[in-house]
Amino acid sequence: MSSEKIKTLMDSFGAADGFLQSKHKIKEASIYNPKWPDIYIYTDGASKGSKTSKDGRAFSGWGVYTRSVTVSGEVREFVSGGNLFNADSNEAELRAVHSALSNLRIPGRMKIISDSSYVIKGLCEIDAMIDRKNAIESINPKDRVRWHWTELRLLNIWSEIRELLKSSKILSLEAEWVRSHTLDNEEDLPNPDSAKNDKERNLIMNCIGNFHADKMANLGAKKAVRSALWFLKNEKDEYKVQKSIETCTKNLALSGFARREAVEFLASQAPDYLPRNVLVTIFDDRTLAKIDEAHEQKQAELEQKERERKALLSTKAEQITPIPKSLVLNQNEDAIEKFKRRFGMHTSLDR
C-alpha cells in the first residue's frame, strides 16, 4: 500500500465522528498477568439487498477473523463464518460478534474491531439495550407493532452477548471502529512494517483484519443462497417449503448478487434439481433463461468430452499391433517347459 493510500485512510478515519475515533473499554481486568495473549477479533456482516427490502431482511452472512499474539510474539490466525437465510445487516453484524465470543478457547485481553457503528455503540451501551428489551417484553404481544418484533430479535442477541461477556476467558475487552471496504483485493494488502508509527500500524492491521472478515461474510451470503435452494429440494413439509419459496422469491428479487450465485449453483446441478414450477415461481424470466442457457452449455461440454474420449479410444485401438497367435502358443509352451524343469513335475499335457 502506497504512502498516499495510507494518508487517505488516515484522513478518512479522522473524518469520522469523535465517538467512532475513540477506543472504548467494555470490560476492565481485575488483575493483570503479562502472560495473557492479546486477542484481536475482527467482525463483519453482509446482507445482500436488505436496504431495499420492505422488511429490511435478505440473504446474509457473517465473518470473523481472529489474531492472537502471545507475549513471546507468536501469532495465530483463525477465520470463521456463517450464513443467515433471512436477516438484516445489523443481525449479521451481531451474529459475528456472538460467534466470536462464544468460540473463545483461551483467556486473554480482547479487542473487537468492527466497521459497524451499531455494534460499537451497542457494546458501549449494552445495559441500556437490555433495559430496552425488558421494556418491549413488558408490552402485551397483541399491542406490539411490527418494529417491536424486529427490534426484539436484535435485543435477544444483545442479551446473549452480555452473558458471554461475563466469561472468565474475557479478561478485558475493548471495542474499536474501522472504516469498511478500504481494501479491494489480496494485492492491496499492505505490509504493517511499512507503517511510520504505531497509529499507522494499527490502522493497517485493522484494514487487513476487516478485509478478511468481510471476505468470510460475503462467502456466508453466498452459502445462504445455496442453502435456501438446497432446503427447497430436500424439505418435505409443504408449509415450510411454501414459506421458503416466498422468502426466496423476495430475496432473489432484491439482489443481483443472489441471482448470480443461484444461477452458478443451479448450473452445477442436474436440470431437474428443482421442479420447473418452483423455478418459475422464484426467478424472473431473465434469470430463468440464464439457468437454461447454463444447463445447455454444460450439456454441450459433456457431449464434447464424450466425443473426444471415444475418438481417443479409437485412435489407441488402431495403434495397437496384434500379436500373432502362433507366437502366443510358442510362448505358452516355453513357459510350461520351464515350469516342469524347475519343479520336476508332469502336467496334463504330458499325459
TrEMBL record:
Q: Which key words tag this protein in UniProt?
A: Coiled coil, Endonuclease, Hydrolase, Metal-binding, Nuclease
Give the enzyme's main class according to its UniProt record, as a single word: hydrolase
Q: Which residues form a coiled coil?
A: 288-315
Q: InterPro entries from the xrefs? A: RNase_H, RNaseH-like_sf, RNaseH_domain, RNaseH_sf
Q: Which Gene3D superfamilies match?
A: Ribonuclease H-like superfamily/Ribonuclease H
Query: What's the catalysed reaction?
Result: Endonucleolytic cleavage to 5'-phosphomonoester
Residue span(s) of domain RNase H type-1: 35-171
One MF term in the entry's GO annotations: RNA-DNA hybrid ribonuclease activity
EC no. given is 3.1.26.4
Query: What's one Pfam family here?
Result: RNase_H
Q: Which domain of life is it from?
A: Bacteria
Q: Which GO annotations describe the biological process of this protein?
A: DNA replication, removal of RNA primer
Q: Which family does it belong to?
A: Belongs to the RNase H family.
Protein's recorded name: ribonuclease H
User: What organism, scientifically named, is this protein from?
Assistant: Aeromonas veronii
